[in-house]
Design brief:
Elements: E1 28-32, H1 37-48, E2 55-59, H2 67-73, E3 81-84, E4 87-90, H3 92-102, H4 115-137, H5 147-157, H6 172-191, H7 201-210, H8 214-217, H9 223-246, H10 249-267
Parallel strand pairs: 1-2
Antiparallel strand pairs: 1-3, 3-4
Bound molecules: glutathione (GSH).
Protein name: glutathione transferase
Domain GST N-terminal: 26-107
EC number: 2.5.1.18
Length: 279
C-alpha cells in the first residue's frame, strides 16, 4: 500500500489578512481547508503519491476567507482547488483522479481485472453521496437506521479477496470514503452509542488498515473536534426541525437568532457542513 512516510510541517491557514501566493508562477498548489473532508481526499492522494515536494499545500481559513481566493484563484470560492499548469481545477473526485493520472508516484487505481471490478468501482463512486446522506440522516433519530449504508459498505468490502480495501488493493475509492467514515464513526459512537463496526468485521478491518497508512493519518483531525463540529451542525438542525414541526413559531425565531449569533461569533459557521470550531 502506498504511504506517505514524510511527516511534513503544516503551514498556517491563510485568512483575509494574508497576501496571496504568487499565483500562476509555475508552482503547483493545492488549496485546502484542514477541516474539509472533500479537500482531505485530495490531500491524502497527494501524500499517497509522495508529492509533498511537488504539490504545495495552501490552507485557507474558510471562516475568514481572503477575498483574493475567489477573485484570483477559484471563482467557486470552495476548497479543494488545484493550481497546475496555469489552470485552477476543483471538485475533489475529479482532482483525485487528475492527480493520480497526471503526476508521478504509485498508481492509486488498480488495473481493471474484470467486469465485476469495473462495476464495483463505478457503483462505489456513485454511492458516496447516498452513503453520506443516509448515514447522517440518522443523526437526528436512532443511529442504527444508518445500518443500511454501513451494510452496503460491508458488502462492498467483501467482494475482493486480495486485500482489505474496497477494490482489494488500496485505491482512490478508499480515499474517497475515508474522510466521511472518519467523521461519522466517532459521532455515532459518542452521541448515539452506536458502533457501526460491530457485526461488520470487514468495515472494522478497513478502518484499522486505513489507520496504518501514514499518508492518510497525517491528514486526520482530532476526533473530539469532529464530534463537536457535527454536534453543532446536526443537533441545531434537528432542534429547528422539531420546533417547526410542532409549529412553535416565536420560539423558533428566538432560537434561530440565538444560534445564528452563537454560530457566527463563536463557531464561525460557513456554508461547509464540515466546518470545525475555531481554535
Ligand atoms: N463538491 C465539492 C464540495 C467542496 C465543498 O463543499 N467544500 C466546502 C468546504 S468542506 C467549501 O469550500 N465551502 C465553502 C463554501 O461553500 O462557501 C468537492 O467535492 O470538491
Amino acid at each position: 500500500m502506498a504511504t506517505g512516510s514524510v511527516r511534513e510541517v503544516l503551514p498556517p491557514a491563510l485568512d483575509s489578512h494574508s497576501d496571496p501566493p504568487p499565483i500562476f508562477d509555475g508552482t503547483t498548489r493545492l488549496y485546502i481547508s484542514y477541516t474539509c473532508p472533500y479537500a482531505q481526499r485530495v490531500w491524502i492522494t497527494r501524500n499517497c503519491k509522495g508529492l509533498q515536494d511537488k504539490i504545495k499545500l495552501v490552507p485557507i481559513d474558510l471562516k475568514n476567507r481572503p477575498a483574493w481566493y475567489k477573485q484570483k484563484v477559484y471563482p467557486a470560492n470552495k476548497v479543494p482547488a488545484l493550481e497546475h499548469n496555469n489552470e485552477v481545477k476543483g471538485e475533489s473526485l475529479e482532482l483525485i483522479k487528475y492527480i493520480d493520472s497526471h503526476f508521478e508516484g504509485p498508481s492509486l487505481f488498480p488495473d481493471v481485472k474484470s467486469q465485476k471490478f469495473l462495476i464495483s468501482c463505478f457503483s462505489l463512486f456513485s454511492y458516496i453521496d447516498s452513503f453520506y446522506k443516509t448515514a447522517t440522516s440518522s443523526f437526528k433519530g436512532d443511529g442504527s437506521k444508518a445500518g443500511v449504508a454501513f451494510d452496503y459498505i460491508e458488502t462492498a468490502l467483501s467482494k475482493f479477496e486480495d486485500g482489505p480495501f474496497f477494490l482489494g488493493q488500496f485505491s482512490l475509492v478508499d480515499i474517497a470514503y475515508a474522510p466521511f467514515i472518519e467523521r461519522i464513526h466517532p459521532f455515532l459512537l459518542e452521541v448515539k452509542k452506536y458502533d457501526f463496526t460491530l457485526g461488520r468485521p470487514k468495515l472494522a478491518t478497513w478502518i484499522e488498515e486505513m489507520n496504518k497508512n501514514e499518508a492518510y493519518t497525517q491528514t486526520k483531525s482530532d476526533p473530539k473536534d469532529l464530534v463537536q463540529s457535527y454536534k453543532e451542525r446536526f443537533m441545531v438542525l434537528h432542534l429547528f426541525k422539531s420546533l417547526s414541526s410542532i409549529g412553535n413559531f416565536s420560539t423558533l425565531i428566538l432560537l434561530t437568532c440565538f444560534f445564528c449569533r452563537l454560530s457566527f461569533e463563536h463557531w464561525g459557521f460557513s456554508a461547509c457542513p464540515h466546518h470545525e470550531k475555531k481554535n
